[in-house]
Amino acid sequence: MKKVIFILLLFHGYIFSQNAWILKPSLTTENLNDVDYGSFDTWYICADAAKILKSTDNGESWQVLSTPVSQHLWAVEFLDYNTGWSAGSNGQIIKTTNGGISWVVQSEGVHPRFSGMDFINSSTGFCVGDNGRICKTTNGGAIWFSQLSTTTEDLYSIVMDQLSLVGFISGANGTVLKTTDHGGSWTNISSGTYNWNCIDIIGSSVIIGGRSGVIPSVRKSTNSGFTWQVLNNDMQKIPSAIYFVPIETGWVTGDDGYIAKTTNGGMNWQTQPTFWNEDLASIKFINQFTGIAVGNSGHILKTTNGGEPLAITQISSEIPEKFLLMQNYPNPFNPVTNIKFSIPQKSFIQLKIFNSLGKEIEKLLDGEFNAGMYKYDWDAAKFPAGVYFYRLVSESYIETKKMILIK
Question: Which one-letter DSSP state was computed for residue 370?
Fold first, then answer.
């Protein structure tokens, strides 16, 4: 597998920062428009030119699936490993029940473009798109019927709360629609004149992201859309997608590889370095650590630590005689220990953590390092007590050592 090198930036002498968003091979240069997961290890992406991409190893590698349509696909939604839908240009909707091996066309593509999709369960789902179009199914997509949407503005995104009857749609020129009966009817609760590209429900609140001209904006309502609070003080790019998990932690994507994260429900946003300048269209997280963002020219970015930059310390710039992985200290430890290693020449390095069964649970480092001695402080707070192994890998060296986490 091709490894992607991230440049290490030097700060104050010896502190390096390595990007935690890793570029993954996608096997296509088409623009990627939406991403969703069917299970912890299985992800799907829809793209231009009717392409669907699938990963069965949690986003590490991807295959391109065949579809029976020819137009761009803009939205993808999976309920589990096997069952999912995708919708796109000219109102096309396709469904699979076998993990993308085969697809059934559910809409012949004679309607305006569908841009957003969400399913409450295996029977009930929605598609939204251009000219205010809302379609609903109550039988898994065998029949789709139009709903009165109270607007002719283009609609971009839809989110339904599976625990209540409430749902929201965002669209152009300030359009925000709300349902309180699982899409039986929709009410316009317009929020300003911005184009709202994305929307998500976080607990009892709803949050939207969009733009007015080139001005980005994120707004939040804690009273079902009656009033809105502006949250975009730290937003540097126009949000294209927004996703929260759990209630306080969320991310947005935007142009030029932009990803920002909040840990306080959207009040503040911190830009996360990606070192890529392709526009990003969609982002999704399985939990607060593992997520995937997709965008133009086949770009797929993955993180396993919530997108936080990784920090290591170069403790000596003297050139060592050989590769060396040292015993962690302290050992046993709770919950932080430091791992030291030496590199005799510039090398591609991976530092990985394995559990007692030999399963890789975390990749700490994956990039190019100059010769020297380094120290990585590993925080194991999210892992249970037990025996773990850490492994240093380069082109010409591999070594594994044992450590014990106590709590």
Answer: -
Domain assignments of the chain as residue spans, ordered by start: 9-303, 316-405
Q: Which residues contact 6 (CB under 8 A, 6 or more apart)?
A: 18, 19, 22, 275, 366, 367, 368
Structurally, at CATH architecture level, domain 9-303 sits in 7 Propeller (2.130)
pLDDT tens sequence across 132-184 = 999 999 999 999 999 988 899 999 999 999 888 899 999 999 999 999 998 99
Helices (H), 298-382: none
Name residue, tokens 């996703």. 243
**Cα–Cα nearest to 383, from 351, 359, 349, 399:** 359
Average pLDDT over residues 220-232: 88
In whole angstroms, give the CA distance from residue 31 to residue 206: 28
The CATH architecture one would assign to domain 316-405 is Sandwich (2.60)
Query: In 10 A of CB 213, how many CB atoms?
Result: 8
Amino acid (one-letter) located at 281: A
Give the pTM: 0.77
| Residue 50 and residue 72 in contact, taking contact as beta carbons nearer than 8 Å | yes
Gap between the Cα atoms of 249 and 364, Å rounded: 22
| Strands in 89-194 per DSSP E | 92-96, 104-108, 114-119, 125-129, 134-137, 145-147, 155-160, 167-171, 176-179, 187-188
